[in-house]
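Predict structure. Input: Pyruvate carboxylase b, 505 residues.
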Amino acid sequence: MLLIGGSRSALGLLAVRRACCLSRATHSSPHALEYKPIKKVMVANRGEIAIRVFRACTELGIRTVAVYSEQDTGQMHRQKADEAYLIGKGLPPVAAYLDIPDIIKVAKENDVDAIHPGYGFLSERSDFAQACADVGVRFIGPSPEVVRQMGDKVEARALAIRAGVPVVPGTDGPITCLSEAQEFSKTYGFPIIFKAAYGGGGRGMRVVKEYEELEENYQRAHSEALAAFGNGALFVEKFIERPRHIEVQILGDKYGNVIHLYERDCSIQRRHQKVVEIAPAVQLDPHLRDRLTADSVNLARQVGYENAGTVEFLVDKHGRHYFIEVNSRLQVEHTVTEQITDVDLVHAQLRVCEGRSLPELGLKQDNIRINGFAIQCRVTTEDPARGFQPDTGRLEVFRSGEGMGIRLDSASAFQGAVISPHYDSLLVKVIASGKDLPAAAAKMHRALAEFRVRGVKVRSTAAQNKARRRPLCAIKARQVIYPFMMNLALIKGILNTVLMFCRVR
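Output follows.
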């Protein structure tokens, strides 16, 4: 009996010790308490970014839910998900994807654990992030407060100043009238730039080079911002001429850990819209790289940034860098960062949202290394002959460039696909990677040369015959409509310049 009692006593003591160990482990490892697996994800978006997230979810064993507008009934992102539901019935095409109550309703009715916003649409709307939180659905991104802070360009600028990050001289808050812009121009001189206070993507952005242009550009910027974001508020900055546009990819978790995944050079733009993105930035001074990445991480830590985001900078000809904004979402060009770091950013977003810490995921700063170069080109359904206006119609021929070192992210890039006039003109993202920049550029040039994209409506047999004898990327006749002439010629010209630059250096 004594032996049995001793055994029970020993077992009891062991149980107490294990309980104490578990208690200490729980307190010392807060993510053990907060970790909650995601079983079903909705993507509140469309097109290639929705498919990109669906693929990541499938790889992690997570069920996927698509939403679609009435105009998107036949779109590929609907087919790629495990479940798909109509939203915004009776609403205009874009408004359907902005219908927060309907999206939340679909999520709750179908037991969705988390919503990924993609990019565009609701991705930087703090009220959407808050609406998710209010009904117990996780938002795959920063907290609603951080989304709000970063979405307000003026507040984000103030936070950057507080974090000791250099900013371009500009107004402290949104301007309320033209006279404030006139006063600013007298103080700092021209050129200046108007920017939308509550949005980005090049809308509501106008450069003013002399006083006579001030009033007209103020009115245009205000109108564009009002139409695009529902708020015409603007702020004014000194315009940095011929800068490099460098952005730093950051990633944070729920426990204060923040890392960077180096930078991307997005300087090649048209109408303030990125066309070609390169990672890492070419011939960036190592000391400047250190300053850019350190400032990005410091700013993210100050605001308690969680999940993926991008801190954007301008770099002038003297090597001085200036904070522009924080995009509190996944970027279109996240692909090039993935290629050079071998980090799947969408996987990381999902795991961080579940409550995993970055160290637990093996994502420590010392482990992040640059491996080669990557270039992304955005192939769009635009017509260069009409000022790059979007074209629409049916893809009658589609053959893509592929092969080693080429990644394609797309949604509607297949023969027979109908390109909608209601949404963005992006057809496919082509990403080339190689051991160095010349290798990546050569792969991209070759891949683009292999593309054959055609959607033809014949209005003149003679014009059609003439078109057949000319390279596709050079054709655009009034008699023959090639809706998918895109900007391949422009992009290939840029790549030729990149290759020449590499050879000279």
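The longest strand covers residues 258-270.
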